[in-house]
Design a protein that fits this description.
This protein has 299 residues and is an alpha/beta fold. Helices cover 47% and strands 9% of the residues. It has two domains: 149 residues, P-loop containing nucleotide triphosphate hydrolases (Rossmann fold); 122 residues, no CATH class. It contains 13 helices and five strands. It has a five-stranded parallel beta sheet, sandwiched between helices.
């Protein structure tokens, strides 16, 4: 019988998380620039780039809290604050609209004139529409005085070259196994994280969090058992596909399974299929089912 997934874990939002592990060099680089800003002007745009779930947003919020002067001097652009043309929150949005950026710029222009530093944090630049990115670019071309931009980026190649060229790019790296273990001990002290889950994380604690919240570690275990089981049926594969489909963050376990079995020839097709689920609105469970069946055929 397949194991059941559970959803027992809650993790703090990066804004509320004071724990930063594994990125001392990037933090020290900023602090050195900040502490010497009187002698050497601080670069106004810092881009924190690296894989998802490694702590980029946590670092960005940590820096922001040290820099901005008043509560009204901190501006956040993210999916939680994403609005449509009427100013209403877009609960089903897949990208950050230009209306969100314009509204933030308007608020910033009306913000405190106390002379304190202001911070604009974007999480993430990858999610900006082209129009939204261009609106930000206009601001970056002539940054307002004493304003710091913190740009969280998951994939540097997705950022407009004109935006990237105006930023100091700080490349942050995946977390080490020891870093992951420390974070697991802090946020999941009652949970035994096995070596397979740590391997699946690829240096991302966010991925461990997603696996635990969605039961993805159990689903992955069931996936491996299903494709190895000669007696499993198409109905079994579809049932598993339906468990994976609601959680886009779990789609990569299909690639993990392909790597587990050394099926390199399937990787390009599976990667394209996963990408097409959101790009061309494929039915997730059908696409996932097809990938599962392809893995099974190759064994």
């Amino acid at each position: 019988m397949a194991k059941k997934a559970s959803n027992l874990y809650e993790f703090p939002h990066p804004m509320d998380n004071d724990v930063l592990i594994g990125h001392d060099s990037t933090l020290h680089a900023f602090m050195d620039a900040w502490n010497n800003r009187a002698q050497y002007p601080l670069h106004p745009v810092w881009m924190l780039t690296g894989p998802r779930g490694i702590g980029k947003a946590t670092l960005a919020y940590k820096i922001a809290k040290m820099v901005y002067g008043n509560v009204g001097d901190f501006f956040i652009i993210d999916m939680d604050r994403n609005i449509d043309k009427d100013g209403k929150i877009k609960s089903d949005g897949k990208s950050i609209s230009v209306y969100t950026v314009r509204a933030t710029i308007d608020k910033m222009q009306m913000s405190s004139m106390s002379g304190e530093w202001r911070v604009i944090l974007i999480d993430s630049v990858d999610q900006l529409t082209v129009a939204a990115a261009n609106a930000i670019l206009k601001l970056l071309e002539e940054p307002p005085a004493k304003t710091l931009f913190l740009l969280v980026t998951h994939q540097l190649s997705n950022v407009l070259p004109t935006v990237r060229s105006r930023a100091r790019v700080e490349k942050m790296h995946p977390l080490s196994i020891s870093d992951l273990r420390r974070l697991c001990a802090l946020f999941m002290p009652d949970c035994v994280i096995d070596d397979e889950t740590l391997r699946l994380a690829n240096g991302s604690f966010g991925r461990i969090a997603n696996l635990k919240q969605s039961g993805g570690d159990v689903i992955y275990d069931n996936l491996i058992k299903l494709v190895q089981n000669k007696r499993s049926t198409a109905a079994d594969a579809m049932n598993l596909a339906r468990q994976i489909a609601p959680f886009p963050e779990l789609y990569e376990i299909l690639l993990d399974a392909i790597a587990h079995f050394g099926l390199a020839e399937l990787y390009p097709v599976a990667t394209s299929t996963i990408h097409d689920i959101t790009r061309v609105n494929l039915e997730p469970e059908i696409a996932i089912f097809k990938v599962i069946q392809e893995i099974k055929k190759c064994l």
